[in-house]
Amino acid sequence: MAEPHITNQPLMKNTNVQNDTEEPYPSLSDFHDYEPNLEFDDTELQTATVDLALDAKVEALAASYDYLESPVSDGTIEENFEEELVDAPTGYDSLTYQYGDDDYDAFSDVAKYGIVEVFGDDTAGRRIIVVSACKLPPSKDLDHSKLLRYLMYTLDKFVEQDYTLVYFHYGLNSKNKPTLSWLWQAYKAFDRKYKKNLKALYLVHPTNLIRVVWQLFKAVISVKFGRKVMYVNYLNELAEHLNLEQITIPDLVIQHDERLLAKLRKPPRRMVKAPPPPLPTQQFGVSLQFIKDNHQGEVIPPIVKQCIEYLECPDALETEGLFRRSANVAVVKELQTKVNQGIPIDFQGNAHIAAVLLKTFLRELEEPLMTFDLYDEITQFPNISKDERPRHVKILILEKLPEDNYKILKYIIQFLAKVIDRCDLNKMTSSNLAVVFGPNLIWCQSGQLSLSAISPINMFTDFVLVNQEQIFII
């Protein structure tokens, strides 16, 4: 199918994606005078068979549109509509799920394509999950039902904390695209637990096919979920919301973006300039040694100490979802700037702001607190026998971790033990905190978080949290 023409539309400035407020949004009907007659009965979606005739109608209808709009629900559906999808698969419960050594291996035939990737946190402290359509193999080579289970397996590790989803649409074609019945099955499978903490869904390089599919599903998509979806026509627009240096964008997507910009006679995406030298007072985005050298030799970075001292207060410790919820992006950026300039900051009585700043500090270190050298050993943690794990972890932390890193890690872990002690109120168990902090304590030099490394890193972090009294020298 030839790619439909897309008329350039400005990016919808969806502030609700970040602040999650309830301001009204424009409906699709604001942009046109009629609803297309799709001659479509949604009972056709409730079967597992491929409806080729329906697919052909959708493709034909997609070709008839020459512009895109904001995919925001028109507000005619009840907010609790999703509760009626009671037959959706439940998946894992990430609050109680114990990571198994063989979970990833079961999906190795799907994972090898790299369709789904997990990266660091965005500016609001939310994990970024990227899905790339260009990496989908031909449908005959991929079990789409297994792909769905693999998506659920990946999301299950993050659905209890706020997260961001990026979908690169370029590369989807008639040979590799899933059927509409599969899309309907996926929508039912991803029940409320997956949707409630998804704070932003960016559809990058959308074609009119996406718009038509949205029209088909609009009747069963809630208003609240619709507000989280954003069309992003160019990568430079995505850069307004995410740090593109934190994610790996497929080369095919970058080349497609350059072709689109060339057609519009827009200048190509600017190369990222080398950052200016850090200020002497800077703490975010520099090394631990730099902070120590410029802050009177203090081993514990001042911002880490300030965040933890604030969060140790009973009211903060008992905040439900501590470290699992995001914070206002503008506020976090403002506080980061002040910290780097040596200006005193105020958390505004908001524990989530302090929590996000602590996570952001760890994630933006030039080298992770657990160091690049220990990455391979940590990701092999599941292969160590349970009897050998205490000795192995002690050697790794007490002997192989640099002294300053050890002291900072001990300071943070002993604070997190206090968070766990209040888990009956804040709902943050050791496994929940491991999911949040594991990828912020250790990552590989490429910055990408391999799905095969997620479980080992979380298992290792959970072990350290549970056994901190035996591991750290008092």
UniProtKB/TrEMBL annotation:
Pfam families: CRAL_TRIO_2, RhoGAP. Residues 1-19 have a biased composition (Polar residues). Residues 286-472 form the Rho-GAP domain. GO terms for cellular component: cytoplasm. It comes from the Eukaryota. Residues 1-31 are annotated as: Disordered. Residues 106-261 form the CRAL-TRIO domain. InterPro entries: CRAL-TRIO_dom, CRAL-TRIO_dom_sf, Rho_GTPase_activation_prot, RhoGAP_dom. SMART domains: RhoGAP, SEC14. GO terms for molecular function: GTPase activator activity. GO terms for biological process: negative regulation of endocytic recycling; small GTPase-mediated signal transduction. PANTHER family: RHO GTPASE-ACTIVATING PROTEIN 68F. This is Rho GTPase-activating protein 1. The lineage of its organism: Eukaryota, Metazoa, Ecdysozoa, Arthropoda, Hexapoda.
